[in-house]
Amino acid sequence: MKQKYLKTILGTIITSLLVIFTSCQQVPDSAETVTIRSANSTWIQELFQTEVVNIGLEKLGYKVERPKQIEYPAIYISLANGDLEYSTVFYEPQHNEFFENAGGSEKLEKVGTLTPNGIQRYEIDKKTADKYNITKIEQLKDPEIAKLFDSDGDGKANLVGCNPGWSCELVINHHLKAYELEDTVEHNQGQYEILLADAMTRYQEGKPILYYAYEPHWISTVFKPNEDVVSLEVPFTSLPESIGNLSEKDTSLDGKKFGFPVLQQRIVANKKFLESNPVAKRWFELVEIPIVDMNAESLRIKEGEDTQEDILRHAQEWIKNNQQKYDGWLETAKQAAN
Predict the structure, then answer these.
(1) What pTM did the predictor assign?
(2) For residue 5, is pLDDT > 80?
């Protein structure tokens, strides 16, 4: 009798422990038990996109931590290691190397197209372009033409480039060599915003400017293409091996050869997380922010609305202005739970 009683008590304890243990586990398909950690780079415009995505994740029942701000290589490694769930920073194809170096498709997955058709190009002020009939980057091989864009007195054109570590700086350096411009053009690297501010000052003083431009970014709302500035064509497509084997078609827009790949900004996520969370994955596939809206957001940030509180408010306003579409994405994402 005593032995039977002990067996009953022991069975009850084991059952209780199993219930407690099971209740503490993450239920893969239940958003309510899943915490999502995200990150974007210190390029603050990406925080706006992250907030738009995170607000939707919260509405889908996920618990969302505040986004972290870290540099691109560290983001990819953190995603691969499971220290983050997702990020909005996959710029295809320029971030292919970051993706592969962190473990590639075994650990990571690219999802959706958050902001499609980002354009990259070289631009100069229209006044100088018209006066000297400059339409192509290779014209800067002429020392006299290059000297027009000399801002530091060394006789070379000063090209405003992008931040080290963004990967676009690798393309620019490759171009200077491939187009035989190293003797006449100097690639100025540093904080892109600060370098652009210097270029804007020169423009306001009526001096020639030469810079790398991309969208989404406020520069295309301040310097309007074909009105204030013109884009320079390249003679042929040549890119670093890490970008991939792209054709002229992949680097052209509206018949103009820009030399840079058209960027698709996508979400990149931990593969195991996506497998366990089909609702989140479907959400990532659906969210899309047009490039014109991102340009406008970039300008608001430039003009001083640049705190985390400001950017969260901007995201909430964007959702309100696109409420019907946003709600439709949410309803579609919820169906993935079935």
Answers:
(1) 0.78
(2) no
